[in-house]
Amino acid sequence: MLLEVAGLKKSFGSIIVADDLDLHVAAGEAVGIIGPNGAGKTTLFNMIAGGLSPGAGHIRFDGRDLAGVPPQGRCRSGIGRTHQIPQPFEKLTVFENLLVGAVYGRRTSEREAVQSCGEILERLGLLRRANALAGSLTLLERKRLEMARALATAPRVLLLDEIAGGLTEGECSELVATIREIRRTGVAILWIEHVVHALLAVIDRLVVLNFGRKIAEGAPREVMQLPEVHQIYIGIEA
To answer: Does the residue 178 lie in any domain?
Structure first.
């Protein structure tokens, strides 16, 4: 198994955000996560990526326990991530943003990074914007840059955090096509998303969280029909 989360616990005072949480992602697999606001989804990503330490439990990547491994070490081992709100280096160009990810995120030389970054920009439809300042990009372009910069680190698993939020229907369709293309390169995907139809177009398995607990897991469309998912996530009685 590529990524394993076992017995994960985390709380902020009396607020429990991870309650004995188990999760796994196999190499090349795409797994979706849904749940209401406050379910602990982004906190889970922060713990996997190393920004937060769990109160208990284990996170293993390719069989290695990540306890004590800092964010940069996790990145260099193959864990890439995006954020809900894109966080580019706004005063650097799009191309320079990727070079930072490639040189510092995977410890490659700048010369080696130049070709791979150009290929990533082309794949994500940003090549024509390579010399534009990141601060001048549209929302869709910023979200593409988030993914491109993460891909520049050569991840084996990519954590996508509400990457479709705020996009138009057409932009969302473009993004889904891009994520499918990323999957075809062999990168595993763990995707938090509120735009459920986009999520269902990509993933193999769906996990539902509520107050830090996993309440359902399985085939995406079957999980979406469960009464507890309707009641807790959609807010209606099934």
So the answer is: yes
Same-domain status, 219 and 142: no
CA Rg value for the chain: 18
Burial of 12 (0-12, 13-18, 19+ CB in 10 A): exposed
Nearest to 74 by CA among 63, 85, 66: 66
3-class SS of residue 132? coil
CATH number, position 8: 3.40.50.300
- Check: pTM over 0.85? Answer yes or no: yes
| Widest pairwise Cα distance in the chain | 58
**pLDDT tens track for 10-41:** 999 999 999 999 999 999 999 999 998 888 99
